[in-house]
Design brief:
Shape: globular
Radius of gyration: 14 Å
Oligomer: single chain
Structural class: alpha+beta
Distance between the termini: 10 Å
CATH architecture of the largest domain: 3-Layer(aba) Sandwich
CATH class of the largest domain: Alpha Beta
CATH topology of the largest domain: Glutaredoxin
């Protein structure tokens, strides 16, 4: 199991604390430093069953500068979104846990973290 975190994020710190408290076996990826490639983002999206706009933090200053709220949310625009997430990893929703069964969850709640541990 791997968790993508931003250490400055309280949701990320809470997820790591819960994983530690439950004795989970996991690795940490500080995705702002170890930026995921477009292929890795595609793979995580497939595991999540989501589209890139579903995991984009549209309230971030970078999102506003890029005008993401106006970008189309359709199949033809998918690669544009993935490219933006790879170029601006701060826009990726966090934390994301890739579970052992090949799925993933956006683990913003304790329930979601426990769900990932049970997979």
């Amino acid at each position: 199991m791997e968790i993508w975190i931003n250490p400055a994020c309280s949701k990320c710190r809470g997820a790591v604390r819960l994983l530690d408290a439950e004795g989970a076996d996991y690795t940490v990826r500080r995705y702002l430093e170890d930026v995921p490639s477009p292929d890795e983002i595609r793979a995580v999206l497939d595991r999540l069953g989501l589209e890139p706009w579903d995991i984009t933090r549209t309230q971030e200053a970078e999102a506003k500068e890029l005008g993401l709220k106006e970008w189309p949310r359709e199949a033809d625009a998918r690669e544009r979104w993935i490219t933006a997430l790879a170029a601006h990893p701060k826009l990726i929703q966090r934390p994301i846990i890739t579970a052992e069964d090949g799925t993933a969850v956006v683990a913003r709640t304790d329930e979601a973290v426990r769900d990932a541990m049970g997979r």
